[in-house]
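Replying to the earlier thread about multi-chain prediction with a worked example.

Input:
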Amino acid sequence: MTVVESPAVRLTVDGRAITAAPGQLLIAACEQAGVYIPHFCYHPRMRSVGMCRMCLVEVDTGRGPALQPSCMLPVSEGMVVETASDAAARAQDGVLEFLLLNHPLDCPVCDKGGECPLQDQTMAYGPGESRFTEEKRHFAKPIPISDLILLDRERCILCDRCTRFADEVAGEPLIGFQDRGSHTQVNTFPEAPFDSYFSGNTVQICPVGALTARPYRFKARPWDISETISTYPNAMGDRVSVHASRNQILRLQGVDSEAVNHGWLSDRDRFSFEAVHSPNRLREPMLRDESSGEMQAVSWSSALSLAAAAIREAVDAHGASSVAILGGAGLCAEDQYAWVKLVKGIVGTDNVDARMGDGLWADLLCALPRASVADACHPGGAVLLISGDLREEFGTLYLRLRHALLNDDVALVELTPLETSLSSLASVSLRARPGDTALLTEAMLSPQRGESVAGVPTKALAAVASMLKRRPLTVLLGRTSLAESPAAVERAAILLARKFPQARFLPLLRRGGTVGALDVGMAPGLLPGRVTLASASDWYRSAWGAAPEARGLGTEEVLQAAAAGKIKTLVLLGADPVVDFPYSRLASEGLSAVSTLISVDLFNTASVRRADIVLPAAGFGEREGTHVNVEGRATAVTAQVTPPGVARRDWQIAAELARLLGGDLGISSPRDAWEELARLSPLHSGASWEALRTDLDGVLLQAPPPADGEPLRPEALRLADLEPPEAAVVPFDGYSFRLVADRTVYDGGTVVGNCPSLAAKARPGRLRLNVADYERLGVGGDGAVVVTSSAGSLVATAKPDDRVPPAVAALAQNTAGGDPRLLLSPGDAVCEVRIEAASLT
Amino acid sequence: MARFERRKPTPAEGLEDLIVTSRRHSPDGHTLEGYLRSGGYEAIRLALGRSPADVIAEVKAASLLGRGGAGFPAGVKWGFCPPGVWPRYLVVNGDESEPGTYKDRLLMETDPHQLLEGCLIAAYAVGASQCFLYVRGEMALAQERLATALNEAYAAGFVGRDICGSDFCLDIVLHPGAGAYIVGEETALIESLEGKRGMPRLKPPYFPAAIGLYGLPTIVNNVETLSNLPFIVTHGAEAFAARGAPPSAGTRVFAVSGHVRNPGVFEVPFGVTTFREIIYDDRYAGGMMGEAPLKAFIPGGASAPWFFPEHLDLPLDKAKVDAAGSMLGSGAIVVMDETTDIPRACHNLVRFFARESCGKCTPCREGTTWLEQVLERILAGRGSRSDLDMLADICENISPGLRWPPRMTTICPLGPSAVSPISSALERFRSEFEARIPVRKTLAVKAAALR
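Result:
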């Protein structure tokens, strides 16, 4: 594609000639040229409204100078701008005076004091004293507008930023202006709180202290805060600024990274720092007392030597394959690399898996041409969404994509089992009945006869086909539900990649660094750099001294092997299979059967409670390193506080274990680990430690073409070598329901549960049914139903939900409303359930 | 309270000179029957026989200036629709709320079919097939009459599909406002029609003709403007222009109120009649109500700078009034006699604007309320001498330079409108404000008394 560069626009600002991009707003062009124009309502990521009038400047476009708001005015050739002329300065002074009329001077007790644009600009531009002798406007101070956010309308200067964010960016216009004139106020609608997943962003962009969030209120003063730019370890790798004081993280602010989150964060991530300082954090190593079965605190040296002994004994007695490591998705790439090197290079087993059974085929994800978020949001493109609801699990990706759909002519095709938050913006929504994902993809790729395929009209399929002919395709590829076999999605992906060789794929695996973990080989059969054991074991054997001989086991196989007594020592890296693995019975059986269960974790989770040796690890904010997001974008993670108690960083634990096992990782800092990784893996070679720390957007990992004289590097995975898995199509009988086990952002997860501000938001999940189905079932007033599958049954509370299509039942995983995993059995393509009204009384 | 003498129209009065208020005194002028009897719905038949471009040319030639306030030529405005963008909308601005203005209400109440026919002609000319009649919420009778008229017109085939046997179709929707003055501003009106909060839109685009309702080309015309169209189409641009003094062509309807003997709505030749005539002539307002002579008058709605006795001989002509430093605006003439308490009148007007500010732009939202508060303090005898300079200074921050036409620090002219009465009054009647300011008496205190 050729990009036609329009010539730059030339204009004069304060007597200086500058150039700007055509269509650029004057205020942005000036800022780029180093001329700051004061403003309150203008925000580069939102539509200009020209409300505050602070950015008035004198502009002459040939008809004489006139005051114009620079946030609304696109640059034009020959424009002459005076930002500080007498007229402009007078207008700005006047606006500031007006803004301050009713603004309470409670800066000493205002959280914004010290970082307040109104305060700063009053200092810089405002009049020295007030001429306003009247009574200021009064409102009840602060009123809660949601569980998290408080609003002080006296401080509000009505800049429309929060209301614009809620409406334009988040698409949840729950706050708006009420009344008029000087009585105008921002407020919620009666009985409807500002319950948005993204409400915290409004606090961040509020130019005064009108909006405050409970977790930070009265906690600190800005001048006492130290901040570093870091990366939140979620799937998007949102760039954040971590604000801490006295060894406590006090808040996270989104950082405007063009490539990643545009400054936004979801509330779940923004306020999750509370968990860092939770009293429930593991503070010291613990050992299960053999006689009493109680956990007892021990020293690191004894815990580690016992752990090393357990590993050594298993290897000696039963071979390296009797050791397995699960988890590690939440770690930094350096920690992941250290564990991979320990397990694959020193212990010699390939039984490593960062996925918790809810992922996708690792080889496939490594082989598919990887898309960036920018690819997905590229104007004129098409996005095929095969996943659950982005809003629940990929908050900032949801915001980015929503913006692109609304503003940049991106067409969305949904292939999802339920209606999602983007359905209203989708060009075509293909409601795929669970189990039919692959079938519908095939139908989409070849012309169809007849009225419909699997309940989807052929017309809709043809519309998708013709759209994909015209627009470059990006596939957002994730699990549609735990209850649908991953083979369906994997088959769909391969078929799509074969039909559209130019298509790019963005893997949507929910657990923070899962995709990054696969990139460093944290899966059976893989080695660092998206290469296979088959092609790269020699390469790594020469570097590490050893490498696994044979392909190991994935999480499901590990747990099966464990249940069969074949895994003796199992190490969990922040993994909680008891809660997260799709087949809870298998997880329980597996963990019970291993001889030694070692858990490296932050919290005392259900799986940790079964461990024999517990090693406390450092978490977000406490460790330094690199995060790799779903795009394969590496960004810096920085440490701001020390871990609680004697908790250690994962690479330290791995290095220590290596030493005790008689090896040497050769890693004495995260930087060592990254540099070794960058040396060995061509994929990681382009990202230097320094570059990651200077570039806000980080580095998109890409293997450079081999240079002359370079030793022959391991061959990358080729898509052509992968055969599409068979996806069994279970005929739809029309009597039973198909289960969708989806996710909700405020679930019973460890992080949410340990954040006082978020925990209350977790609600028991409901069995969501189509309205007609719900009525047909004749559910009683308490909504109680019994859900039965071939694997088991549970009692849940049913709820009609028009986002659920007929004959489908949806239940979120990991909530207090019933565990859908009880209904799943390994190997099933879909989960068919029978639902009967029951009475709990 | 003096009762106004209602003057009955005399048959001798030149009804033939009237264009838009000719059916005003006809008892059934507002019904379809009455309208048809007096030549109604002939103009649309004539228009349909001509090409839209032809109709636009006719209206352009008639130099029909917008009657809503800004006085922009209607035919020219129609030409701003970008070619090839469909659909287009016609929106009727019936949100007449400028203090002292009540001419559109009269037109809607007494001659709703004339307005509907005007809509048909305008929609045909610009190629709109959907028209929204936005009528101020408080005007119950106007809404009732328009609703009845719409039903009659639909039933008779004048509105709806295949109008008068042609292939021209137009749907007209009556939309009541919710009581905000600012919605008289055309972009705020469009926001309100879209179901949003009535706040003016950013300019550019300067005219909704390019990007208006639902982002599509939209022509917004005033009720009186549209009511002139049947006449222009039937009698031609020349006959229309002959009624006035071009470029102030045709007639204009003025609402005269205040201290006059016979307040009311009067249609006069545009650009010919003088203020003196319309205020003092027995055919019109009939002179001052009592003994007191005229002190000042507002020539064009509460937003307009005031005129004084020396301006009485100016003709009601857009160009001449503009040149004299005010505007004909919405056609409301408010007369104040010598008994008028100027600071109180001023406060009254400013209070209106402060309450009606939509709250969007800071200078207007905060500034108008501040002006009101300071005036209130002065009226209560708690003002200080520096307050007068401060009033002027606040005005200057809303409308830099205090010039006419105003320069603005705001999006729409509502803020500067509140400035007009204050700057007019302070300029001419500063002493009346000063008289309200208590003189601080300095007490001679003997040093011994302090001990």
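The CA atoms of residues 13 and 35 of chain A lie 8 Å apart.

Feel free to reuse this layout for your own posts.
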